[in-house]
Fold this sequence. Notes:
The protein is α/β, with parallel strands linked by helices. The chain has one domain: Rossmann fold. It is built from eleven helices and nine strands. It has a nine-stranded mixed β-sheet, with helices on both faces. Helix 1 crosses helix 6 and helix 7 (about 150-160) crosses helix 10 (about 220-230).
Amino acid sequence: MEFKNWPREKSLISGQEYLGNQLIAQNASSKGYETIINEYVYIDTKYVSEIFKKIPKVWDKMKGIGVDLGGGVGCISSTIARKEDVKKIFCVELVEDVVKLCQPIVKKEILGENYNKVISVVGSFDNLELEENSIDFAVSWDSMHHSSDLVKTLTECKRVLKKDSILVIVDRAHNNSTPDSEIERMLNIVYDEEFLIKNYRPKDTILTRRENGEHEYRIFEWKNFFKQAGYEILDNIIIKTSTDENKKLKNDDNISEIFVDYELGAFGNRKIMFVLKPIK
Length: 280
C-alpha cells in the first residue's frame, strides 16, 4: 500500500517512544486486526464514532478534507472516513512501521474498497506538508500529549486549517488542583515487568514513563496551550467508563461529565474532548 513521506526530525525517531511503537507494530501486525486494535488503540472501533457524537456539532463538522495528527494504526481516520461527506483524511503517523505494517490492515478492515480515502503519511505533526487554509477539520486521539512542544504542534495545525474549521482533541487531563509533585511522581514511574512483556520489551528494561514520551497536563495547562497557539474553545466534555473510581472523581473545572458502559482505554478509562476553532 502506498504512503507519503513527510519530514521528520531525527530526534523524534531515535527515542524510546519511537522504539516502543515500532515493536508493537512489528509484533501486532502479524497477529491481525483485532490484536492491532487491542494493543495500540485500546478501544473497540465501534465506539469511536459514538464518542465524537457526544457533542453533535463535532460529528457534523467532520466533512471534506481532514488530517489526523498522530494517527497511529489508522483506526480513528478510517472510522471518520466512513462518512460519505468526508472526501479524504491524511493520517499522519511518526513511526514508519506503524504506517507500513498496521495501517493497511486497519484501513481495509474498516473501509473495505474505500480504504484509499485515508491517505497514509509517515511524518510529524509538527511538519505538515499541506497548503495553508486547505483543511476542513483536524483530529487528535490520545496523541497530542506526546508532543514535545504543544504550542508548536498546535500552531502548525492552525496554519493548514480553514477559518471555519475545527480541531478536535481527545486526550487525558488532570484536575487543576493536581500538585506538581504528583505530576512528577507519575512521570517517574518505572514500568513493571508485566507492561514490558506486553509491549514486547526485554523484561529487565529500566524505563520511566517520562523516557517513554509521556506528558501529564492539567486542564488549565491545556487551555493555556490553546490560547497561546490562537484557538478558541467551542466546547468540551469529559467522558468516563462507568467505574466506582470514575464516579468518585469529579473535575474541578466545571466541565460536563458523561458516563459510558464500555472501555475507553488508556489512562483511567476517562478522556476529555476539546472542540477548538482557529482564530484567523
